[in-house]
Write a structure and sequence with these properties.
- The structure is a single chain.
- This protein is an alpha+beta fold and 565 residues long.
- Among the domains are: 132 residues, no CATH class; 162 residues, no CATH class.
- The protein contains 22 helices and eleven strands.
- Strands 1, 2, 3, 4 and 6 form a five-stranded antiparallel β-sheet that branches. A four-stranded mixed β-sheet has the order 5-10-9-7.
- A hairpin with a 4-residue loop joins strand 3 and strand 4.
- The chain is globular, with a radius of gyration of 27 Å.
């Protein structure tokens, strides 16, 4: 149990060599460039963000080209849906024209002819770029490889964006999702001499003064940094994460360029109808800057550990603060098996389905109770340790949920469990899922249409991803959009279901989540109701009214939960 291959650790794609004494790095193995850099000559480069001048225009062109090509691919992939919307608009315009003049009718019929030719052009473009139904999959696979390569070429910002896109099976064809998923642990590493120079400059000491042994090659390379295995002089085996050079300047310049692209897109309202792109960019900007600060990541890890301090089956690596800065992190090295490595888990007598249920339960606690969640739960960040504990690490990307949003999410769960379309309609309004300017009166019939099929299914027959696919059509035709504060919640949920489907073929997100969600909901709601009733008895909040219907539903749910246990 103690001799797990290191390919299952961290990003987990290679077996590293043995740890070597740091003296070999400092004397025999360290290139001359490292000696110069350790004296303070390593170029920081963070002052220049690369968004200005001729290089800035070239960068803007490169980014815009990739975004435009991806937009064209996705538009043509969903062409049938777009044509349906266009034909629907054509009929509505013609109907309105009949109420006006004959000239208006002729004008609309002429417009309809122009639309017909335009649609022929779109269909021909789809045939040329995406091929026929028989060869479309192979063409999409080539396009996905092209996109991945371009994102790697564009650098850390776009690798990170690609990782996020790789979890959005609701937005991207499956070949894109699979290919972008490799960005998690197949990012090219940067040179060792640069990494060692950064470590020594950040810690203000030679590597041999901090670490007794240090591996010469990284065990993992990610979008923002790479990880080495080492050993402290006190004997602890550690993982040392080093940030990529000139990262802050690169990210800053790319954000400026992306804002220019977003500002241009805002001129076309139809591009912003189904998603708050500007809001998502703001959230990405905030999150990635926090992710670049390894000290903040360490604090996130300690907050997560404190939230789960009573959970004996969850582990968070120890952070060694005396060897950690904003650009270098030293933490406990975790031996373990990826949650998706089914053969290894079974060989070690661990049931993957039990691991998956534990993972779901931890996330429901994070979302419904803590309001603080790990926003990047891909298999490289989750390991099953030899003693069976589930280890979380890489807390650079975390999400925070306000108490108000938590309360709204719990309300939504109430209404889904009780199959209440009117309640869900109000939840969508409260959670800001409506496009700006949409009359609230239009929501209820749309919600009833959205859920009429799924309400007739047993909860175990509902698949989160399939529901998302079904809602994509409705969200396109009707006045809904994804609010920016749900970006990372949706990312986490989609990733969790992907892990669940791999680890348990019978897995259903809703069915698995239901008992745990009820447990956390009852705990939170019960606490709120106790406070409310005490306030009423003590004469506080005299203008408030008791929601007896809600109280009755809560009591029924609690009674059923006790019986089921």
């Amino acid at each position: 149990m103690n001799d797990i291959a290191l390919k299952d650790q961290l990003a987990g794609h290679r077996v590293p060599g043995p740890l070597v004494p740091t003296g070999e790095i400092a004397i025999a193995k360290r290139p001359p460039k490292l000696v110069e850099a350790s004296k303070g000559a390593a170029p920081k480069g963070d002052e220049n963000d690369g968004s200005k001048g001729l290089y800035g225009y070239l960068r803007l062109f490169q980014v815009s080209r990739v975004i435009t090509m991806l937009a064209i691919y996705l538009y043509l992939d969903q062409l049938d849906l777009h044509l349906k919307m266009q034909n629907k608009q054509k009929l509505e315009r013609l109907k309105n024209a009949y109420r006006l003049t004959r000239a208006a009718v002729y004008g609309e019929k002429l417009w309809g002819i122009k639309l017909w030719f335009f649609q022929l052009f779109l269909k021909a473009s789809r045939r040329f770029l995406l091929g026929t139904e028989t060869d479309r999959l192979k063409i999409q696979e080539r396009q996905a490889v092209w996109l991945k390569d371009k994102l790697i070429e564009l650098g850390p910002t776009f690798i990170k964006i690609g990782q996020s896109m790789g979890t959005r099976a609701d937005l991207l064809p499956l070949p894109f999702v699979k290919e972008l998923g490799t960005l998690v642990d197949q990012v090219p590493a940067f040179p060792n001499d640069v990494a060692f120079a950064i470590i020594e400059r950040e810690l203000g000491k030679k590597i041999s003064e901090v670490y007794k042994e240090f591996e010469l090659e990284p065990v993992a390379a990610a979008s923002l940094g790479q990880v080495y295995r080492a050993r402290l002089h006190s004997g602890e085996e550690v993982a040392v994460k080093v940030q990529r050079p000139n990262l802050e300047g690169t990210i800053k310049g790319d954000i400026v360029i992306l804002k220019k692209v977003a500002n241009f897109a805002e001129r076309f309202p139809q591009l912003n109808e189904n998603a708050d792109w500007a809001g998502m960019l703001r959230e990405f900007d905030q999150t990635i800057h926090e992710e670049m600060d390894y000290s903040a990541e360490g604090r996130n890890a300690e907050r997560f550990r404190d939230n789960f301090k009573t959970w004996t089956n969850v582990h968070v690596p120890t952070i060694y603060w005396n060897s950690t800065t904003s650009r270098v992190m030293t933490m406990e090295f975790i031996h373990g098996t990826k949650v998706t490595d089914l053969e290894e888990l079974v060989r070690r007598d661990v049931d993957p389905a039990i691991v998956n249920r534990l993972l779901i339960k931890t996330y429901l606690k994070q979302l419904l109770e803590d309001g603080f969640f790990h926003a990047d739960p891909h298999p490289g960040n989750l390991l099953v340790m030899p003693d069976g504990r589930l280890a979380f690490f890489d807390f650079g990307m975390v999400g925070r949920i306000t108490p108000e949003l938590q309360a709204k999410m719990i309300d939504a769960f109430f209404h889904v469990v009780s199959k209440d379309p009117a309640g869900i309609a109000q939840d969508l309004i409260d959670l800001d899922f409506l496009k700006p300017g949409t009359p609230h009166s239009t929501v209820k019939p749309v919600v009833e249409k959205m859920f009429e099929f799924h309400f007739n299914l047993k909860l175990k027959d509902v698949n989160f991803k399939e529901l998302t696919y079904d809602l994509a059509d409705v969200m396109y035709d009707y006045p809904f959009r994804l609010p920016s504060n749900f970006t990372y919640i949706m990312r986490a949920l989609m990733t969790l279901e992907g892990i669940g489907i791999i680890t348990d073929p019978e897995f259903n997100f809703f069915e698995t989540a239901k008992p745990y969600a009820k447990e956390f909901m009852l705990r939170r709601e019960g606490k709120d109701f106790r406070k409310f009733f005490v306030d009423k008895l003590m004469g506080r909040d005299e203008g408030g009214k008791i929601d007896w219907d809600r109280t009755w539903k809560l009591a029924k749910m609690a009674f059923k939960t006790v019986l089921n246990n």
